[in-house]
Amino acid sequence: MLAFAATKGAKQPKLRKIMTNGRHSLGAQLQAVAFAWLLFVHAPQALAQRLAGSTAAEAKLSIDGSFLLVPILTDMARRFEGFNPGIRIDVRSSGTGKGLADLRSGVSDIAMAPRALRESERDLFAFPIARDGVAVIVNTANPIKAISSSQLTDVLIGRITNWTALDGPDAPVKLAWRQGQGSAEFILEHLKLRRAQIGPHTAIVTNEDAIKFVANTPDGVALASVGLSERSARERTPIKLLAYNGFPAASRTIQNHVYSLSRPLTLITRRPPEGVQKQFIDFAMSKKVIDLQLKYGFVPYEE
């Protein structure tokens, strides 16, 4: 009995080992099935969460509008992206009118305009980021130095056709006019004129076009950004900015609020901004971009 028990006891561990191995194998299989089921149930939710995180990390912002604001907004966008990796800001130049139309239709998130909102645009939300002005520019060969609002009106509507009426040379006035742009709209509103009243002119599009036209036309006159015109004059482009209603067209007179053709440079949204849209607008209105405002000849907006 003892020998049998010993023999039986000797075989028992082997039997238990076999049975234990079987239980382990079955348990592993059950665990694998359970894990696969969990993956099947929860994978879509996890994938959705990962995609949501990816979308947030790759947020995009579309800005469109004023030709004048494109260079400074591009610099602001690149700086903002540097502070916020994963955010991409697209800045396009379609002109003020097209930029506002794209904003209303939802094509863009923010519009740029070189002016305040008009009465017909009061449903939108405006955020001034700097100040600039509109300058009346002529060629340096033209001896006149100043112009009044009534004289500018007469030039624009074609009532003054020769520079002698402004104590200038005996030469025809050659006007370049920017149709449909923010600066043109601002001047029309300021002088209470209609587009149809503008006299014979050469059609141009951008501030750069205006400066180039006047630089190449001794008898030419056009309207352009004060900041851009000042920079061009310092770079020896043959243009000069006329004083308007007794005050020089200059950044300092804009800053002092005595130059009457000054205007805000504005970012515009359809609704109160939120998310990345709000973050960028707050950034564009902050002291973190004052150096960029000065770089482009604009005046920090302080009101």
How would you summarize the topology of this molecule?
Layout: H1 2-57, E1 60-65, H2 70-83, E2 88-93, H3 96-105, E3 110-113, E4 125-139, E5 146-147, H4 149-156, E6 174-178, H5 182-191, E7 202-204, H6 207-216, E8 220-225, H7 226-234, E9 239-241, E10 243-244, H8 251-255, E11 262-269, H9 275-284, H10 290-295, E12 299-300
Parallel strand pairs: 1-2, 1-3, 5-10, 6-7, 6-8
Antiparallel strand pairs: 3-11, 4-8, 4-9, 4-11, 4-12
Number of discrete helical segments: 10
CATH-level-2 architecture of the largest domain: 3-Layer(aba) Sandwich
| Straight-line distance between termini | 108 Å
Mean pLDDT: 85
User: How much helix, percentage-wise, in residues?
Assistant: 40-55%
What does this structure look like?
The chain is α/β, with parallel strands linked by helices. The protein has two domains: about 60-130 and about 265-300, Periplasmic binding protein-like II (D-Maltodextrin-Binding Protein, domain 2, 3-Layer(aba) Sandwich), CATH 3.40.190.10; about 130-255, Periplasmic binding protein-like II (D-Maltodextrin-Binding Protein, domain 2, 3-Layer(aba) Sandwich). The protein is about 45% helix and about 20% strand. The protein is built from ten helices and twelve strands. The chain has helices spanning about 1-55, 70-85, 95-105, 150-155, 180-190, 205-215, 225-235, 250-255, 275-285, 290-295; strands at about 60-65, 90-95, 110-115, 125-140, 145, 175-180, 200-205, 220-225, 240, 245, 260-270, 300. The strands form two sheets. Strands 1, 2, 3, 4, 6, 7, 8, 9, 11 and 12 form a ten-stranded mixed sheet that branches. A two-stranded parallel sheet has the order 5-10. The longest helix has about 55 residues, at about 1-55. The protein is elongated. Residues about 1-30 and about 30-55 have low confidence and may be disordered.
